[in-house]
What we know:
By secondary structure, this protein is mainly α. The chain has one domain (1-253). Helix content is 78%, strand content 0%. It has helices at 2-23, 28-37, 42-63, 72-95, 98-117, 119-129, 143-155, 160-170, 176-198, 206-225, 232-252. Helix 5 (98-117) packs antiparallel against helix 11. It is found in: Cell membrane.
Amino acid sequence: MEQYAFEILLFFAALAGSVLNAVAGGGGFIAFPSLVFAGASPVNANAISTVALWPGNIASAKAFQNDIKASKRTLIYLLSISGLGGFLGAMLLIFASSKAFEFLVPYFLLFSWLLFSFSSKILAYFNSRKEAQKSFNYDHKKLVPLLILGIYGGYFGAGLGMMVLTVFTFYGMKNLNEMNGLKVLMVAVNNGVAAFTLLFSGLIDWHFTLIMIAGALIGGYYGASVTRKINQDILKKIIIVIGGLITLYFFIVK
């Protein structure tokens, strides 16, 4: 009975996590700790979460395809950087110390929670100081920040979507639908490359993963379709409370 309870928990955690990633970000606050509560080690939970939520990102990206106005060259640039970062981050997760990862998890969660909590103020600050652009414009100087974000995404990834949105706003983008579309597409490629790399790492529990993939596909598709209708302020407040409690928990049990 307890095993079925964990399976149900993981299905709905993946569903909710994919909805949140499509709508407002913050899905990592749901999927990752749910796996830890179900008995996975932090490193395994992170690897499983990366693989399991990836199909949801693909479903979300499909729903945003008409909002993306960036040129083909720019898309190749963005997705190549995201993919390279995902590969490097996943390799870091596989070969770096698991003790170091466990030590860093509460701080990653805290940073992600702070960024998510104050994202409106951060985005408004950059919006007020940057000249508006129709879409993302290619520039070699934008390489390093996006690559660093990609490595972080492959290594841990919680809050990656919000970090990408912040960088886009810093670069002058103001069309939220296109920003969300590019964000979801970049995260999908980042997590996809990281997930493929992690498939051969021995860190994946396929029983947990397949259950979560089913939830992620449903949540990813329908999450993207309601992103223009849902009251994001209320949803964000709920995520802030949940994320804060989960972050506090990981610091207590550290």
